Amino acid sequence: MALLTDLINLNLSDTTDKIIAEYIWIGGSGMDLRSKARTLTGAVSDPKKLPKWNYDGSSTGQAPGEDSEVILYPQAIFKDPFRRGNNILVMCDAYTPAGEPIPTNKRHNAAKIFSHPDVAAEVPWYGIEQEYTLLQKDLKWPLGWPVGGYPGPQGPYYCAAGADKAFGRDIVDSHYKACLYAGINISGINGEVMPGQWEFQVGPSVGISAGDELWVARYILERIAEIAGVVVSFDPKPIAGDWNGAGAHTNYSTKSMRNDGGFEIIKKAIGNLQLRHKEHIAAYGEGNERRLTGRHETADIHTFSWGVANRGASVRVGRDTEREGKGYFEDRRPASNMDPYVVTSMIAETTILWKP
Questions:
Q1: Alpha-carbon gap, residue 26 to 270, rounded angstroms
Q2: 179 alpha carbon, distance to own chain's centre
Q3: How far apart are CA 302 and CA 148, in angstroms?
Q4: Cis peptide leading into residue 142 (ω within 30°)
Q5: Exposed site from 88, 274, 280, 323, fewest CB < 10 Å?
Q6: Is the pTM of this model over 0.90?
Q7: Are the C-beta atoms of residues 120 and 206 closer than 8 Å to each other?
């Protein structure tokens, strides 16, 4: 008698050339990841060779019931760490049957910005630090915290080891390896300042691929947490009070910034970001005002600031960049629930295309 695990782990390539493609898209809230699977006749590595598909937009808050069909356009392919073999994960964006991007499709506009000749020539690199909190499923209270109570104050938990300090490492490490398997350019993980909170980093990734990779990394994390019976929260301030919030610090550089004399380009770019501070804050994640208070390694939401090695600033420049006169900077304002398509393309637009 076959066990359920035996059937889940069946190697399809032993008996068929057919593969399973899991189509992934973003639902109506802008943060809810949806997916469904279909069978393809053989292995595919080019998203342009994948068929478009449709779904019921009235069930995701993206279309009315009387005209509910939304069309999925495949945009990026990753190896499937759950089914393995030649099976794939497919990141899609969503359109009306007439071919217009639906309002929640933020990828479409981002792709236009990244395909602009001036932006493409600068080869923008991104490294996104995605913080998140693991919650006990039934209580919606951080993993490892006493039921209805609080652990000891922050201090011992950041990058810590030990059963009384690190909670959920099996999920975190499984996610790390699954992302590497999938072909996501995940560059590291660490335990965060608040117990039950973790971070993974995606990048350096170029242009639109930064958004594709971060969204699929989020999807993989949700799937692994589902298996473990744990909830993932991207709330920027999951616990009120003297606890760190959760951000998605976005490291950024252009070709000009990485070349000799790049520090002057960086300072000019930061000047542009300052002039458009309100526009960026409005697009950097819902509930961010609960996180950007000027405390817990954040700048105040109403005031733009920048500094070298200053984690209390809106934008931080590293010591290496200052010393070498070229490199990158870190926008510390984006919240953990930001849309990476919006944030990455907006930074490129403001620093490359926008003229004060």
A1: 31
A2: 12
A3: 34
A4: no
A5: 323
A6: yes
A7: no
